[in-house]
Amino acid sequence: MPAHSPTRHPLISRRTALEVGSVSLLGMGINHLDALRAQAAGGTKHRTAKSCIFIFLSGGLSQHESFDMKPNASAEIRGEFDPIATRTPGVQVSEHLPMLAQRSHLWSVCRTLSHGTNEHSMGHHIMLTGRSDIPTGFNPGRPMTTDHPSIAAIAGDVLRSRTNLPPAIVLPDKIVHRSGRVIPGQFAGRMGSNRDPWIIEASPFHAQSYGAFPDYAFDHQQRGGTDKRVFKTPHLKLSQGMTHSRMSNRIQLLKELGAQRQMLDNAGQVESFDRYRAAAISLLNDDKVHYAMDVTSADDKIQERYGKNSFGWSLLMARRLVETGVNLVQVNLGNNESWDTHGNIFPHLKDKLLPPTDRAVSALLDDLHESGQLKDTLVVMCSEFGRTPKISQLAKVYANPGRDHWGATQSILLAGGGVKGGRVVGKTDKIGGFPIDQPQKPENFAATIYKALGLPQTAFWQDDVDRPHYIYEGEPIPGLT
Of 7, 22, 68, 117, whose CB neighbour count within 10 A is largest? Predict the structure, then answer.
């Protein structure tokens, strides 16, 4: 029975440089550097050269204003947007997704992903873990050790790194509610916090600002607050005066001290801490890592194609990380439930949310397609749920109408990784409220990702007492390949 993946991944703060010079001599076990090098040389639990970019739109993308428009429904159902033709005959999308419409030969849509909750935290947990059942002790107010592990945490545990980076990364932030509480479902849960996915925090939290800052930042309730956030990628550098030569001397000394630390290394806490330090050294020496993360210094033409905003920079970083060898990158496009359009749905989608998403996702698909990597890289985009068929007005809070939470159906985009473009899976009723053909579960969604990553149906993770927990809870969404 295979052991756990030996790599554990720390969180990189946007404000914190990795300072090798500040690491004490006894703060790092050099034996882990040897293991890390052996890992990079080719040992893998599940050999695969396949990848996934998992785009998550926190808040709930409206299917009626994106990929499942109902132009023949009554005004209170169809909304203000018009459908436009895509490159695929018979397939229409929102007029505010013109770039994706031109690229419909690269992507397909499933219009019938369904689960049973209309609550944000529970919806996040369901979609980020790919599990419809709610675990015992679930708390919508904070992550719990009894939560199901996230898709990113599972991928990070059962896959081995192909580079000095971990196999699964989440960016540009963890998902936090405007109140400051951290949303459950993003972490390793019952796998243990030492197997939480590696989170790159490049997007500062703002309690009242949403969307793709700086150009597309907005406030759902139009309270007039300012947003001065800056997108900051991790700053990886040696401390002042610590040259690569001096660092090599430090590592040699650590080798000599290694034998004295054998007893300490047998303690799990120390061992995990050592791995973080070893990973830090490896990152500092890898030019590919610097290239992947330093997206705000990319050529202006590249930045313009993706968009000079947090959505564009995040997907550019994801694309570069996959190119570098990361297996799964989860990209949270819009923290603080940016897509939660209870009110002002039409101006905010038209002017703030759909344009930067349309541009950034289109640029990502173009780059992967032109490089030949799209065939081995699955791109998926979903939310925690969709929106209600009927438009509503919360006049006390919002100036204009919107749609409420709706777990019964949502539309998800899929491209690459064996998915053929131009396909539509499933059909909803005439008001876009319920699936009437080919309903799909979150378990099928997760299985689609696991299959694209090359994981066999027999794949499992092991808990701390070596009990196996099988990964697949459903079958991959049919009709896509």
Answer: 68
432 pLDDT exceeds 90?
yes
Q: The domain containing residue 178 runs over which residues?
A: 46-233+304-470
Q: Are residues 88 and 196 in the same domain?
A: yes
* Residue 204 sits in the same domain as residue 250: no
pTM of the model: 0.85
Angle, helices 268-284/244-257, rounded to nearest 10 degrees? 160
Residue 386 near residue 62 (C-beta atoms within 8 A):
yes
d(CA 254, CA 29): 7
Residue listed under structure tokens 């703030």: 352
127 phi/psi in degrees, rounded to 5: -80, -35
- Token code pair at residue 422: 């131009």
Tell me what the pLDDT averaged over the chain comes to.
85
Strands 405-406 and 386-387: antiparallel
pLDDT tens for 93-133 read 999 999 999 999 999 999 999 999 999 999 999 999 999 99
Q: Which residue has the tokens 């005066």?
A: 241
Alpha carbons within 13 angstroms on the beta-carbon side of residue 419 total: 36
Angstrom CA distances, 275 to 8, 152, 234, 242, 251, stand at 7, 19, 19, 21, 14
Beta-strand relationship, 377-382 and 410-415: antiparallel
313 and 352: one domain? yes
What is the average per-residue pLDDT within 398-423?
A: 97
Q: Which amino acid is at 89?
A: P
Q: Report helix angle 30-41 to 244-257, nearest 10.
A: 110
Using the 8-state DSSP alphabet, how is residue 197 labeled? P
CB 122 within 8 A of CB 139: no
φ, ψ (nearest 5 deg) of residue 378: -80, 130
The pLDDT of residue 286: 72
Facing residues of 437 across strands?
Answer: 427
Tokens of 241: 């005066």
Q: Are 52 and 453 in contact (CB under 8 A)?
A: yes
CA dist., res. 150 & res. 131, Å (int)? 9
Could you give the count of Cα atoms lying within 13 Å of 264 in the half-sphere of its Cβ? Answer: 15
- State the CATH number of the domain containing residue 466: 3.40.720.10
Helices 151-158/442-452 angle, 10° precision? 30
Query: What's the pLDDT at 222?
Result: 81
pLDDT band at residue 282 using 50, 70 and 90 as cut-offs: low
Cβ atoms within 10 Å of 204's Cβ, excluding its own: 19
Q: Both tokens of residue 78?
A: 């169809």
